[in-house]
Design a protein that fits this description.
By secondary structure, the protein is α/β, with parallel strands linked by helices. It is built from 16 helices and 14 strands. It is globular and about 65 Å long.
Length: 391
């Protein structure tokens, strides 16, 4: 580690500020500050009414990421000059961009930003690819991403499966790629609630086993299969309910209408507790403390903050076999179900919820594994080892 603050390299971190990438950066920010002087650059924030605000609207981001700059603006191409000039004024010669869906959707803007910074100010870039491929698997877009990824001096991916996707679909020099696994989300638990109080606050029955489906509703998250699995479990007499913390008001309307119609058609209205509103980070602890099992029936996954939240709250999980993490989770931190198979999903949930001792053991193992192998201090060291090569 460098001796003295003046020896620390200055870097900038660019990311979406929203849940997902934002929470990843928030967990990384303080640990990486031991080795670097980080500055966070992101998009202007908007509250729930759409009004632009000069501060974070996410209370978690506000707590952990200090002195952000809301300089990115894909509606104003000249903002790339403002970003580049800021980097030069702060003697920042290295930028780490965290690339997910939001940035892929604005790829033209970011290609311009990176090219301008490299050409005019000789700034170097490390891209952290939170999902290597676009969800659409569009070959033309993959070709565009291939050009974009080559603008970076170095790439970081989250697991070996993502590394293989990069190797099989892109022409980037693999000697300049590292795998750094997603860290445990352990900063959300403020020890404010136990299960009884959390359920009381959320109006969740105390006498039922609660399955949790958490996160924005999207096609690839396989919610349909959880609905079908719930019907199977109810027919088999299981005393369960599904708490859906998903902000359904902000999901695609067609998808929301489809799942609500299915819940009604299968006569499961009493078995699904739907949180239709945006979930502030203050509420995350209560939601996870109220749940018994976190269920992630995704049909496609690169890495998952929801999984790391579940691990951070010591919740046993049932995941689909698309998760790379299944290798260490299965029969240790939870169970792995076959992808797109509601019968197997129901079977794995039933096995788990009918063994309370095993549920507790799985939750404890997952947390201890996360603290030992997925700690943000170790992740920060790996990031710094890459940055040190380039600064």
């Amino acid at each position: 580690m460098p001796n003295g603050i003046n020896n620390k390299p200055k870097i900038a971190i660019i990311s979406s500020p929203n849940a997902g990438l934002g929470h990843y950066v928030a967990h990384l920010f303080n640990p990486i500050s031991k080795y670097c002087e980080p500055k966070f650059i992101t998009f202007p924030q908007a509250d729930l009414l759409g009004t632009t605000t000069p501060y974070f609207t996410d209370s978690f981001m506000k707590r952990y990421v200090k002195w952000p700059r809301f300089t990115l603006n894909d509606k104003e191409p000249q903002s790339v000059v403002e970003v580049a000039n800021y980097l030069e004024s702060r003697d920042i010669n290295l930028v780490n961009i965290h690339i997910g869906t939001t940035i892929k959707q604005k790829i033209g803007y970011f290609m311009s930003l990176v090219q301008y910074c490299k050409t005019v100010h000789k700034i170097k870039f490390v891209f952290t690819l939170h999902d290597v491929l676009p969800w659409s698997n569009d070959r033309k877009f993959i070709q565009l991403l291939d050009v974009f990824y080559k603008q970076a001096e170095y790439l970081i991916v989250g697991n070996d499966r993502e590394y293989e996707k990069l190797a099989n679909n892109f022409t980037f020099n693999l000697e300049k790629v590292s795998v750094i696994r997603h860290g445990i989300y352990n900063l959300f638990d403020s020890n404010l609630y136990d299960k009884r109080i959390a359920r009381y606050l959320l109006n969740i029955p105390q006498d039922k086993t609660i399955l949790l489906f958490f996160g924005f509703l999207k096609e690839f998250k396989g919610f349909d299969y959880l609905i079908d699995a719930t019907k199977i479990l109810k027919k088999e007499g299981e005393n369960i309910a599904v708490y859906v913390a998903s902000g359904l008001k902000y999901a695609p309307k067609e998808l929301v209408n489809s799942v609500l119609s299915k819940i009604h058609k299968l006569e499961l209205n009493e078995d699904f507790i739907l949180n239709l509103n945006y979930l502030d980070t203050h509420d995350i602890e209560a939601v996870f403390k109220a749940a018994d099992v976190s269920v992630l029936p995704y049909t496609n996954a690169s890495q998952s903050g929801v999984l790391m939240l579940s691990i951070g709250f010591k919740k046993p999980v049932v995941i689909s076999d698309v998760f790379a993490e299944g290798e260490w989770i299965d029969k240790k931190a939870g169970l792995v179900a076959k992808n797109r198979d509601p019968k197997d999903l129901a079977k794995k949930i039933k096995i788990l919820i009918n063994d309370r001792k095993k549920m507790d053991e799985y939750g404890k193992y997952g947390y201890e594994y996360g603290i030992k192998h997925l700690s943000w201090d170790e992740i920060a060291k790996k990031y710094f080892a890459i940055f040190k090569k380039l600064v």
